[in-house]
Amino acid sequence: MAQQRSRLSPALFLLVLAAALLAPVPGLAAQARNIILMIGDGMGPSQVWATRLYAMRELGRDLRMVELMNRGRTAFLGNDTLDAIVTESAAAATQMACGVRVPARAVGMGPDGKTPCKTILEFAGEMGKKSGLVTTSRITDATPAAFSAHVEDRDGENSVAAQQLRLGVDVLLGGGRRHFLPDSAGGARKDARNLLDEARGEGYALPTTGIELQRAGGARILGLFSMGNMAFDIDRSRTDEPSLGEMTAKALEVLGRNPKGLFAMIEGGRIDHAAHGNDTAATIRDVLAFDEAVGIALDFQRRNPDTLVIVTADHETGGMALTGIGGGTAINFAAIRGARSSLETLLAELAVTPTAARIRRAVSARLALAISDEEAKVLAGESYRKDTTQTYIPTPRSLVSILQRHLGVGWATSGHTASPVFVFGAGPGSEGINGFRHNTDLFRMMRDALGSSGVKIQ
Ligand SMILES: [Zn+2]
Question: Of 18, 42, 116, 204, which sits most exposed with the smallest number of CB within 10 A?
Answer without folding.
Answer: 18
